[in-house]
Amino acid sequence: MQSYQSVHTQSDNGSENRRLKFHENTRDTQTEPDVRKLDRRKEMLGSTRISGVSTKISRLDRIERVSGYDEGPVLHQLKDIIFGRWISYFLVFIPFAWGSHHFTWSASYIFWLNFLAMCPLASILGEFTEEVAAHTNQVVGGLINATFGNAVELVVAINALNAGEIRVVQSSMLGSIFSNLLLVLGCCFFCGGLKKEELRFNTTMSSANISLLALSSVAFLLPTPYAKYYEVDEDVNNISRAAAIFLIITYAQLLIFQLKTHSHIMGDEDGEKASIPMYVALTGLVIVTAAIAVLSDWLVDSIDEFTAESGINKTFIGMIILPVVGNAVEHMTAVSVAMKDKMDLAMGVAVGSATQICLFVVPFVVIYGWIFGQNMTLHYPSFEIFLYVLSLWIVSLSLSNGHGNWLLGSLLISTYLMVALGFWYEEVIDF
User: How far apart are CA 316 and CA 423, in angstroms?
Assistant: First the structure.
């Protein structure tokens, strides 16, 4: 949900959604032009910036449950944040995840129980991130969302990097991109196309994101001529780190463009207070982030034994399984809004999330590894880079004409399944 046109702050979007909910409750008393104006304003929320992908989607889902700003006690709002979504039922796995680690159950139990326990926490983290951002101004709110928008992926990657699981880190980064570009976008077109014969979307938004993804592909390709995959030398490290710095600079420029120099493109709304106090939102953000860090640490520690027990290789774990943790709820919401013919919003989640992974999460992890003595590079097996560039080309062709249908969605889903099949059989010697 992002593009060069996507410039609202999270706090402005959250305030807008609360205002929309209030007006929808009084819809019967409005004139027809007022109703049309309200619908148009709600459609405009589909174009949101890169730095607020996951938290924005969670708020759009939450407006169906929360009637508006400052209604009900703080405990009521807090309860809705924690238990207000279907995935909250998965919180029951948290004590089992703790038990599996402390009582040394088999690696398969440890992996899957911690995996399931992290899914609802990722959703709750997005809610608290949004609430914290709503208490700040435009720039600070954008930076908060930029930092915590992909916090789950970052926490898992950092824990895996600290454990020396560089192959898992690499594959999880690329897997998140494949998941967003092919599976989520494909499901949006397929499910939306079953409800409507032709789906239309903003080509300017999609082409901007595809251009940024193409830039990241250059960074992935740069180390390839300078080393063989299994012989990571100093040249590969230097090239990867330099490319990561360029990607971070590009992302910083994008934030400046969206939040400062061109923030007038979509216009600003008057800010409103968040639904919970700042100290409650910050406390929740810290607690949930810490819980995710602990659970992901246990999950990462179990990977070696899990691969030995299950026969699933690390590439498949990173490429296919781990991306589900941070994105499951937002992906389902994206499909839901696509079925309501809001394709710009759905594409913002799919393509926009992939863009943020490439421009922020991947280079951040490379620089983190540089600082802490881990040889995390952008040098991937040629097979994986070839699939990434080919997938990017397929998506670019699919989005070039500004409309789609269920067949286009089926094509993208089939591409993802074939890619997943290749990763199932891929054998890569670990670093």
Answer: 5
| CA–CA distance, 7 with 345 (Å, rounded to integer) | 14
pLDDT value of residue 263: 64
| pLDDT at site 107 | 92
How far is residue 4 from each of residues 244, 269, 346, measured CA to CA in Å?
Answer: 21, 18, 16
In contact, 192 and 346? CB cutoff 8 Å:
yes
Task: Give the span between the Cα atoms of 140 and 262, in whole angstroms.
Answer: 16
CA–CA distance, 400 with 413 (Å, rounded to integer): 18
Q: Which residues of 173-191 are buried (b: 16+ CB within 10 A; e: fewer)?
A: bbbbbbbbbbbbbbbbbbb
Distances (CA, A) of 81 to 280, 285, 288: 12, 12, 12
Q: Compute CA distances 130 → 42, 337, 378, 379, whole Å.
A: 18, 20, 31, 35
Confidence of residue 429 (pLDDT cuts 50, 70, 90): low
What's the token pair of residue 5? Answer: 């046109």
Q: Read off the pLDDT of residues 378-389 as tens digits, 9 standing for 90 and up.
A: 888 888 888 999
Angle between helices 185-195 and 323-338 (to 10 degrees): 20
- The terminus-to-terminus CA distance of the chain in angstroms comes to 36
pLDDT at 47: 40
